[in-house]
Amino acid sequence: MDTVYEAAGGWQAFVDLAHAWHRRCLVDSVVSHAFSHPGQHPQHTERLAAYWAEALGGPSTYTDQLGDHSHVQRLHAGDGEHQEMDERAQRCFALALDDAGLPDDERLRSTLKDYFRWATADLTRYPDSAADVPSGLKLPHWSWDGLVVDP
C-alpha cells in the first residue's frame, strides 16, 4: 500500500499544498494574524512541505536538514489558546487540497484533514512559553490509520 505521501502525489504535491494553504491563510482575516509578525523564514512554505511530507511517509528531509519536532513546537509555543484561528486554518487546509490539485480520493482527503486537525491541536501543547518545550521531540508520523506510535 502506498504511503499517504505517495498517494497524495509526492514532493511536488506537498509543495503545492503548502503554497495553497499559505495563500488561503494570508487572506483569512483571523488566520493571517499568525503570519503577520516579522521573522518568518523566507522558505516557510518549502520547509512546511518538508515537514508535512516527512510526517506523512515521505523522505526525512525535515529532520535531516531543518530540525526536530521540538524546534517546530517552539516556533508555535507561547501563543496562548486560539481555537477559532485553528478551526479556520483547518478550513483553509481543506480548501487548499483542491487549490493544490491533490487527488479527489475520499480516503486520502479524509486522512489529510484528520492529520491536519491533529497537528493543529498538537502545536498548541505549549501555550505559555517556548521554554516549556522539551528538547529532542521526534517528528510525529501519520499513516492511513492515524498517529503512528513508536513501540
TrEMBL record:
InterPro entries associated with the record: Globin-like_sf (IPR009050), Globin/Proto (IPR012292), Hemoglobin_trunc (IPR001486)
One Pfam family from the record: Bac_globin
Record's signal peptide: none
Source organism superkingdom: Bacteria
Record keywords, A-Z: Heme, Iron, Metal-binding, Transport
Protein name as annotated: Hemoglobin
Organismal lineage: Bacteria, Bacillati, Actinomycetota, Actinomycetes, Propionibacteriales
